[in-house]
Amino acid sequence: MRTEDxxxxxxxxxxxxxxxxxxxxxxxxxxxxxxxxxDPEALRAVVPEPLRVEEPLVRFEVMKMGDxxxxxxxxxxxxxxxxxxxxxxxxxxxxxxxxxxxxxxSGREVAAYPKVMGxxxxxADSGALVGTxxxxxxxxxxxxxxxxxxxxxRREAEEQIGVPTYMLKTIxxxxxxxxVQELVRTRITDLTVKEAWTGPARLQxxxxxxxxxxxxxxxxxxxxxxxxxxxxxxxxxxxxxxxKGVAS
Length: 248
Hints:
Acetoacetate decarboxylase-like; eleven-stranded mixed sheet; four-stranded antiparallel sheet; 15 strands; about 10% helix
């Protein structure tokens, strides 16, 4: 294979890429969001500068993807931490767990989503919307919300999930040191909220050494939402280079 041909391939393995070379469109992406207050010192221990922790709030989310171009249906769960950056309010994506390997590989390679494999689920059960996350055979998180108790203003729903999101992109070099280390930003575009609901909610996090969501403990549930959307994720842009000025 000629050098110019090799350069056309952006994923590995070279001749059988782990994911489709497409910008995915999400149809019927369903969210369960539970915003909770946690220990501010625990947040400061995991949020990288220059992001700032202004309020000790975390959004636990479970997302059921009805249909995604290039990947098909899958489910995802994780934690997003409310942060500030240069006067802008946003979220730092702290942890994400998926049951779809191509979406996991794409999120890590093409962008900087902190994705690993897991077993999340979102379903209705006896009048409650239930979101769960398991790592292997062990339960890591259980969220419950009253099923469609009160309608939520759709503009408020858009604001909840349309804020800028920040991620840390690190690519190691062959010497064991970072070759790339950047703070990047992205946001949801082309967003349509189809349904939006709110209601009472509870959240339990369970200790697991390989899925340490409980390191950000639940002190108080602040709000909850159940949102159905169509959307597209935009690309990422670097906003801070941690290696700038560091001698190679």
